[in-house]
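Preliminary data (for renewal application), adenosine-5'-diphosphate complex.
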Amino acid sequence: MAALGDIQVTVLKGVGHALAGTLAKLGIHSLQDLLFHLPHRYEDRTRIIPMGSLRVGDVGVVEGEVVKNDVVMGRRRSMQVTLRDDSGFLVLRFFHFNAAQKGQLAIGTRVRCYGEVRAGRAGYELYHPEYEANPEPMAAAGSATLTPVYPLTEGIQQPRVRSLCRQALSYLQRYPIRELLPPEMLADYQLPDISAAVALVHAPPASANVPQLLAGKHPAQQRLVMEELLAHQLSLLKVRQQIQQRQALALLPQGALVAQFLDNLPFSLTAAQKHVLADIRQDLSQPLPMLRLVQGDVGSGKTVVAALAALQAISGGGQVALMAPTEILAEQHYNSFRQWLEPLGIRTAWLSGKVKGRARTEALDQVASGDAVIAIGTHALFQQDVAFHRLALVIVDEQQRFGVHQRLALREKGVSGTLAPHQLIMTATPIPRTLAMSAYADLDTSVIDELPPGRKPIETIAVPDGRREDIIDRVRKACEQGRQAYWVCTLIEESEALQCQAAEVTAQDLQERLPGLRIGLVHGRLKAAEKAEVMTAFKTGELDLLVATTVIEVGVDVPNASLIIIENPERLGLAQLHQLRGRVGRGHEASFCVLMYHPPLSQNGKARLQVLRDSQDGFVIAEKDLEIRGPGEVLGTRQTGLMQFRLAEFERDKGWIEVVRELAPAVLADSGRTEGLIRRWLGERIQYGDV
Ligand code: ADP
Ligand code: MG
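Predicted structure:
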């Protein structure tokens, strides 16, 4: 028997070559693909809402009699039509209209319309609602159903998708969708079977619970949500499984090198660092590739943990690659590692995108021959022409800045034959637990949950930019006392050029007002050598004030800096602000962070800055960020690839995440189900699954 997945959409009426092409852009080829193109919301046209009960933001159907129809002037000319029902009034406003419409909506006409309520000039208004004059009576109460709304792409309209899905549904009887969830799972959670769930979601019967459907909580929807979350979980677990089918070098720690390293450190490790290192040491000594995520809040001391992991790999005879997301951070790591490891006779190579010509050839040779046992750089490390001699450990710092695809792709490097490198992934973005469970299902996790001793809390204040003069004065005083400060210029991310320009102007302006201070400037458009020079000067105390763009957001470590001014913090996410603020508070001095906002702040803007003032705990801040802005933003925009669900919504559905995590291993053991689920839900997006 043919399956729904084998029947092409071209069997449907009205689907020719052109429309099939458009559907293909949505990843829809077969009838099954079409039926998994699920409505992401519903319109409730099942009942007429009394005007007197409307609130701003309500979307729905109202019906009444036209009692006034005027063309009014104002900022824009518009037609203003007042409707009345038994409970109140409502205004329809049209900025574009013609004489025929004015005639249609003449006083005394009955009108039914559908739209969103806004607070307008004349009270509650609908702008350009869909409307019908002298409508047929509504279907008897109880017989109408919700109208599904589908995601669209260019070249296809809502009614078209609705009609195609309705046609496809008629095939369901003869060609049911394959049930991929084990029967006991359905029974345990009282979930409807797949064909029933899909049918219901596309065409809810009149008897279905409307509020539940509108809230996405109907059992049919929840069944699909859970299946989708399970499919995502499985895709990551499968990646993990594939990697762990390979072997890795078992790297046994060599006490002598480590002892020497620790002796040279000016501090001793925190208990949390030791704890995490024990996890890593254990993993590395196995002949199975490590897949470990280390989460540690800003300033918790991840770099030294990375260095110790590297040391174990090197003493076990392997090479190490350390990748950082920015040139500035990569260079800083290069300097730290050289300082730490050269005394132990360990050679480090530097490979960033900006290293060119002979320097690059030399570095490549050293890495290829194994003379350099550590290679540090940006993603340039993983370009084609970089060959390692015996890569045993890959470390990725500030992982949240890389895409999921990059993370998964880099696993290819260093794979030779059946050997794969160990992987240590570090992130400072504290990710709420449920989110981590779904986004990093392929990784084991360790948390550095403690800051080094002696850190003073960073005092954070929010100040309107009208008080710029006072702030400048504060910077002057701090620097005169031998402190160092950052001044961060933010602009909307899309224009790096503008961001750099703003930083240049600010630096000039500050230099004019603060002639006594030594001011440096760093932004993304400087040459690598220039950036490095400025950063070194700041680090060694030759500069008092560093004006910067958000290029310093991650990783930069200058413990003497104790004041940071962030302009327009309202433009940034909480996690990003927390990262930026983490540039200070790294030494023993009391530190300050000034959030210099541009008034007026929105309610939401106020709430967000307040979160930052109240807390310095990255996890607390991330939870709030998750509440306010959703998972894509928390993971970093480039991380969203794996979190783009069709139906699941992180906040609403997070209850499933733990369930799915528990159930996934059993399903994974059944490769038929696993393949089917992944293909069904992730389809063409899952090429990296072949890693
Ligand atoms: P992260 O990368 O986690 O934000 P870093 O590795 O840059 O943090 O470390 C922050 C600062 O704390 C650095 O100056 C580092 O030398 C210092 N540091 C790290 N571990 C300790 C420790 N156990 N005790 C004291 N200082 C430490
Ligand atoms: Mg760091």
